[in-house]
Amino acid sequence: MTDIQEALEGFSVEDTETVIKSAIGSVLTDADYKPAKINDWSNSIISAALNGLQSLNRPYKYAITVILMQKNGAGLVSAASTYWDASRDGLCKVMWENGTMHCVVTVYGTSVNIETKEDEKLDVAV
């Protein structure tokens, strides 16, 4: 499948979720919450996720947020609002937890504008 076909099909939540779960697992498996490690863990999750998303070779730009929170009974609310091409762009939120912490990773994927030959013909015909 070409980059153009994949962009026209839209953002793949399933593929993105697989990459994110792998990134979280590679960093936080067997980890206990330690405030001093939060920045390192966040950066490592983002780096692993971006590498995994890049390996999908899809025509997207990505923005990733990571929330790491100690599990202590406090509430956490996360919300997102977007204004984009809903047929091509998308987001994927993955929640993970262990006995000591919660992790929420959100990936925003925006399609790089790739014109197809039909789009070019339409521009010329107008």
Describe the protein in words.
With 126 residues, this protein is an alpha+beta fold. The chain is 40% helix and 24% strand. It has four helices and three strands. Helix 2 packs antiparallel against helix 3. It starts with a helix and ends with a helix.
Relative helix content = 25-40%
Q: What is the strand content?
A: 15-25%
Q: Compute the number of strand runs.
A: 3
In what order do the strands lie side by side in the largest sheet? 1-3-2
Low-pLDDT stretches are: none
Kindly name the structural category: alpha+beta
Total of helices: 4
What is the string of SSEs from the N terminus onward?
HHHEEEH
Query: What is the radius of gyration computed over CA atoms, rounded to a whole number of angstroms?
Result: 18 Å
Shape: elongated
The CA-CA distance between the termini, in Å, is 30 Å
Kindly list the characteristics that best describe this protein.
126 residues; alpha+beta; 3-stranded antiparallel β-sheet; elongated
